[in-house]
User: What shape does this take?
Amino acid sequence: MNEDIGDRIDEVKDGLVQLRFADTDGHVHDINAAELSEVLQGLVEFTDSMAKSGVFGDGIPPEVRVRPPKPGSFIVEAIIQWAGQNPEAAIGIATTAGGAVVQALHVGIRRLRGIEPTDFEYLANGQVKVQWPDKTVSEIPNEAWKKLKALKRPTKKSLRKILAPLGDDIAQLEIRDGSMSDSTDEILAETPAVVADRTDYITAAHEPDEVEESTEMIEVEGQLASIDFRPGQKWRVETPIGSRLATMEDEDFLIKLDRGMALHKNDVFMLRIREDLVVKNGRASKEWAVVRAERIGLGVDDEPIADAAGDEARP
Assistant: This one.
């Protein structure tokens, strides 16, 4: 450790994220053990995701630990232990590691509720300053903002896990942050930074299909291995990049067939193929459509596979 860091190490502090589960009367509740496991797993996943997005700057990601619970209560106090492993990166940081996670959770809960910012500004330090309709402001790294704004499945899943007890007999979750030196009661005395309820859990638990679509045009030599002129039927197209059933959308080519052009086995075509890629919930499917077919070589076997009327030849 260099001298400057040693002189200022007292400024480097780990922090706490306090999760207090209560009923509508504010009483402390017991909690389902499986759901508690989900809470901790979700907090670990969320913190790891935010670390990769720069919430804690550079260096080793924080370690999430749990402070021993006090008798007669159910308060999860997760120790976000980062500063001790990253003293150089942590010096000068204005918030604790716990505060960084809580701020990100605040943004994530707002996005679950569909709240849109009134304005945001990209700062020179790589942060994004986000202004909300209630006049409050969040400041988080740009990559973290992208993840939380999009709220895709992995981020939403980690939030659902953190909120899991709200799907049972817990009415609300209060989230606070604090320093390692703060006692549980001292942290509880502060106003929660975030309060989540059952509606937030239901929103996080709802998983609509995630669909991404893209289109690519491909130029490739190929053969028409089988054809079918019946409406809605597909043709077998064989190319060096694969063999696939495809719709025939080249109207000029179809007109030529209708006017008497015969197709033969092993004819070679320059094909323009539209490949439509659909990724649904992580699973991909491809559809091909031949939008242009130009014959560039006759097959060595002149046995027709379609006659001039467009009917398939029979063996």
About this structure: DSSP finds nine helices and 15 strands in the chain. The mean pLDDT is 79. The radius of gyration is 30 Å.
